[in-house]
Amino acid sequence: MSAKYLIVFLTLLFFNSVQAQVINVTENKDDRKGKHYRFPEFQEGIINRQKGDPSKAQLNYNLLTEELIIDLNRAKIAYEPVSAGERITIANIDFLPIDDVVYEVLYNGEVTLLVHRKQTMERTGQETGLGRTSNTYSSTTNTYKSEDEFLPTLKDKHLLYELILLGNFGLMDAQAYFLLAKNELIPFRKLKQLEKVFPELENKIQEYIKAEKIRIDREEDLIKVLTFCNAESK
Fold first, then answer.
1. Which run of H or E residues covers position 16?
2. Class of residue 190 by CB neighbours under 10 A (exposed 0-12, middle 13-18, buried 19+)
3. What is Dmax (Cα atoms) for the chain?
4. Is residue 183 packed enough to be buried (19+ CB in 10 Å), middle (13-18) or exposed (0-12)?
5. Cβ–Cβ < 8 Å for 180, 112
6. Which strand (E) or helix (H) includes residue 207?
7. Could you tell me which of 129, 154, 178, 164 has the C-alpha nearest to residue 42?
8. What is the DSSP letter of 49?
């Protein structure tokens, strides 16, 4: 297969579906733009603070560094420190910082559904024509034989902040879901947890999950069932 094509791998990471997308240096740069960001372009975002007026900036969320990034034209920098209680809105999507972690708000209600999105990166080799890949790695310098094969790390944030990354590597998407109830952040790994958060709806929740065929590994299903639970609890 030509190195010009994008190869998509499907695997399982944590309890969710994970996609591996291989970005190749020989591809059109426009095809790779923003692959490691929540949005392909920086957009005007609003920073809503607990105290003071909201402010605007060109913002995006970097999935590799797990940071909100501000585009200052001359440079891209992380928005930090992020204060508790701040809410950042980009393209009508709210981001909620809690204890130095940035969560995306999927559903806002009495019990809120959050997701923490991130990516990991792995090196991919060049095709040899025999169906295999080869690469040369130097453990002494922690580099590959050419700049195109260089794998950026968190030490190279100035590279990771760019919309297009150099080199050949795969990006692994991962997400972890949480419930925010009465200021308590609860990892949401099993649908059964909803019965503890909404004990008065135990039977209704079971019936709804069965009738709607709700699955824990489908984000749209989690939004759907949280919408139902919040509506029924009123």
1. strand 16-23
2. exposed
3. 63
4. exposed
5. yes
6. helix 202-212
7. 164
8. -
CB 56 within 8 A of CB 44: yes
**pLDDT tens, N- to C-terminus, the chain (234 residues):** 444 433 333 333 333 444 456 665 556 777 788 999 999 999 999 998 877 789 999 999 999 999 999 999 989 999 876 666 789 999 999 999 998 899 999 999 999 999 999 999 887 654 444 443 444 434 344 344 444 556 788 888 888 999 988 777 789 999 999 999 998 999 999 999 999 999 999 999 999 999 999 999 999 999 999 999 999 998
CA atoms within a 13 Å half-sphere pointing along the CA-CB vector of 34: 11
In degrees, to the nearest 5, what angle opens at C-alpha 205 toward C-alphas 202 and 209?
145
Q: How far apart are CA 138 and CA 150, in angstroms?
A: 11
pTM of the prediction? Answer: 0.78
Which two tokens mark 115? 């997701």
Residue 200 phi/psi, 5-degree rounding, is: -75, -10
DSSP letter at 214 equals -
